[in-house]
Amino acid sequence: MKGKERAELRAEAHHLNPTVHIGQHGVTPSVIGALDDALRTRELVKVKLGAKDDLKPNDAANSLALSTNSAVVQVIGRTATLFRENPDIQKKKGDLPPWRR
To answer: Angle of helix 57-68 relative to helix 29-42, nearest 10 degrees?
Structure first.
């Protein structure tokens, strides 16, 4: 992902609320499944990491990105933003992106 694309996605993600929350059990298969579903329907997803998690936020974001085949857009504090393009979503010129719908 190029820097300009990443900057545009960061600007789009600013107004999003976290869709997936990682709790006290950390990164589990059910969390990965929920994140995969969210990425399939929305493409751009914020993930809130638990406060008691032993993993560093960057490490958790990278492991989530590897397990869902997505890209880390940014990590701020304990919130990570991930992006994965879905070619099955019909996109027309002038339509809102899927994360705004």
So the answer is: 70
